[in-house]
Sequence to fold (635 residues):
Amino acid sequence: MGKERRTNVIPLPEVDGVTLERIIGFLKIYTEESFQQFTVQEKKKRCDEFFANCKFNDFLTLASASNYMGAQVVLDEACQRTADMMKNKSVAWVRKNFGIKNNFTPEEEEAMREKHEWAYEGVDPDDDEEDII
Amino acid sequence: MVICFLSQSGVSPMNSTMPYRKYRKLEGVDLFSEKRQDESCTVLEDLWAEILTQDESCTVLEDLPDEILTQILSHLNLKELVRTSVVSSRWRDLWKFTPVVLEFDGCYTDGANKDRKKFKAWVNHILNLHQAHVDGFIVRFYLDWPAGFMDKWINRALKKEARNIEINLLPMSNPAHRGYYALPSLQKSLHSYGAKSAFCFLTSLKLVGVGIHDDTLHYFLASSTSLECLTICGSRFTRSLRIVDPLPKLKHIEISHCNKMKSVEILVESIVSFTYDGAMINLFFNKTPKNLSALTLAGKFCQSFFLHAYKHLSYSFQLERLNLDFPNKHVKRPLRSLAFYKSPYLPQYLNLKCMEITASSIVGRNLLFCTKLIEMCPLLYKFRIKTERSIFIPDLSAAEASVFHHENLKLFELVGYLGCPSEEEFITLLLKIAPSLMTVTLDTENDFNELAWQCHFIEKKFDWVNGSKLPEFAYAKSRIEAKEFAERLQSKLPQKTQMVIL
Fold:
């Protein structure tokens, strides 16, 4: 990967410095022999350490950048962590925290909810346990 | 607007060492240019940061193309995913194209079944709406009649290229219970599946309570070149299984409760672990199954492995993990079988690092026999015994234990610890045999109610038969008591041996 050398002038209009550092850093960890020998829990712990100081936006930027660069493992990790943040949260929470505008009319929204009533049960921002219908 | 300009401005150069967000903020707003070097923020700066962050997150998430968004959503479960359809109009149909794992659980956690009609309607509804490929298709639902809709579901799952297919039709019952559903013969619909590797997307197949005929299974295997895990449980039609290459990724095979099974031939090189629960069958592996390192056995086959070990040597010599679950019927003898002692041939498992035994036993019976098992495995690192106890009249035979030296045993785990003197005796002996022992784990999980009832029953019977009181059974009557016994035992252990009490 020639992109590793910072003095090399390959334009990456989609990727900024910090994200690139992160991608390279993660790939370095991932390709280490010792990492491959870890159990699933140990791998997760190591990745958690690596991403400890990343905020939500960072994961999205990471996802976009690694998709552009073709780094599949980083993309998977970034997507997984973003999804983890969304897990079992209510629709309103998702809209508020991810800054998505609701462009349904109240009637449309009601119709959509009724269509899949079963999916809205057991949601509680504080409760991580899902109820089975 | 300044903010919009910021969002669409160019990214920072690759050599930037400044935090990304701060850089973007500073690009268009001169006010804070002097504060660039300053670590501490003013209140105004904080406010700006907040506003800008919010806007940034709005644009960044909405900026992502659909492909990435669906990748993120594919990590959610079905309920969470369908909920996202109402977030905004862009998200309305996203879920239909997300390669999610379609998991349909037809049972409540307490074992009761959900309403059958509703469940069927729900699965059909989702299958009709979802349009793209799926990552997995899992159905757990009690089914005991040959249902046509099950055929359709399986066909849909295959058309949607589900990588992981699990059909569990006996979710809460004993798999030995006969399932009535049978997988349709795929020979008929061969033309719709096309070429030889029709199921090359399939990596894991698990069928519980689904009757599958030999030829259908072989067809499946021949067409699934990427298969990694295969589980067949409770299939009443399977008689003989022959697994041949090309199946370069097949690592884990599990076969259990297939009553008509007579022979299993596994001729693939890549197999790593094999689990079998059932009657005695002819089991063949490749001449040298060099990757086979884990074996789990239960049922009568397990007994044979134990008592007639010489018959199984061709594939057992290179094992690293061995898990033996002895059948419940023979409560009186599993942990001390005379045949074993008298058998002239005790194999040495020179590569075995971890051994786990699950057996029934009697409260108070000594465990010293287990030292024989440890002696068989010079490289053993972890030894785990799980016992389900019952109360019978205790036997008073002399302890039989071999005395030898073991250099590698580090972990010992006993599940079902009851504080009996025989357990303490065993642990003390273990410490003598294996000075390398580092951790002893005692799990006090037991069915104390059952034990109390049995004890009461035996006492009454003894009283009636012999007219005298039964000598006291020394064991813990509750989990707390068992833990106390364990703590007392802990104080008798040498310093370097750690004890974990569960």
Q: What stands out?
A: The longest strand of chain B covers residues 354-362. Chain B touches chain A through 49 residues (CB under 8 Å). Residues 1-44, 46-59 of chain B have pLDDT under 50 and may be disordered.
